[in-house]
């Protein structure tokens, strides 16, 4: 079976037209037509029917079934190419979400330098949801992921290394700085400066507000945690952050939420179960677990 035939089949399925599929793949229409014919002969079935009234192709049930397997086969082949290229490069692509990258990667950097692993790493920064997709597609080898529940994925090997609660942060100039604890309902009417949808914080804030029956007054969204902290420090508004992102050196005051129903921020290492780990990759995973797992994290 020709892999190209499967690629053309998927394109025809998506376009429902031989001519459009040929344009998409930059080949002649007969090339596409012959590819479909070869597949039909291979499987001894009809994959498409012509709908002359709408001038389009309609996939048969057999065609729909083949599509499921074709997409999987092509995805696996693409993943194999990426993994073999990565092995040849000798580099480890390490995915880091902004908060974990800012506040946990510096903790393991000295150990990475001592073990001479730092030069083997190419860091890729993105939100945890994007990194999880990149792991699956083979664009990242290992990732540190943040989530609101333990990550359960049949394709990934996931190990928890830390978890933390969320806190309210306020300026030292804010009257709320006189408090150490607060109920979320008591923040009704306060201006919130929060991280945008690329962070799990947005979902966590929705969860807290839903349980408290209190919608926060969000006045500014940002993807930069440093901007968030600066605006809060200037008393422009208050913030909502995982305690793992709050440093002692921040000129901010943090409050513990008293609400019974609260989300937890889980931090884990993850890699594909199908991946044959190199010595360097095993060393990086062991180092992360050793340096970051513990009561102080």
List the topology elements:
Layout: H1 3-15, H2 18-25, H3 29-43, E1 48-51, E2 56-59, H4 61-89, E3 92-96, H5 98-103, H6 105-114, E4 121-125, H7 128-137, E5 142-147, E6 156-171, E7 181-182, E8 191-195, H8 200-212, E9 217-222, H9 225-233, E10 238-242, E11 252-257, E12 264-272, H10 279-292
Parallel strand pairs: 3-4, 3-5, 7-11, 8-9, 8-10
Antiparallel strand pairs: 1-2, 5-12, 6-10, 6-11, 6-12
Descriptive notes:
With 297 residues, this protein is of the alpha/beta class. The protein has 3 domains: 3-83, Arc Repressor Mutant, subunit A (Orthogonal Bundle); 88-162 and 265-292, Periplasmic binding protein-like II (D-Maltodextrin-Binding Protein, domain 2, 3-Layer(aba) Sandwich), CATH 3.40.190.10; 163-264, D-Maltodextrin-Binding Protein, domain 2 (3-Layer(aba) Sandwich), CATH 3.40.190. It is built from 10 helices and 12 strands. Strands 3, 4, 5, 6, 7, 8, 9, 10, 11 and 12 form a 10-stranded mixed sheet that branches. Helix 1 crosses helix 2. The longest helix has 29 residues, at 61-89. The radius of gyration is 25 Å and the shape is elongated. The N and C termini lie far apart (52 Å). The mean pLDDT is 92.
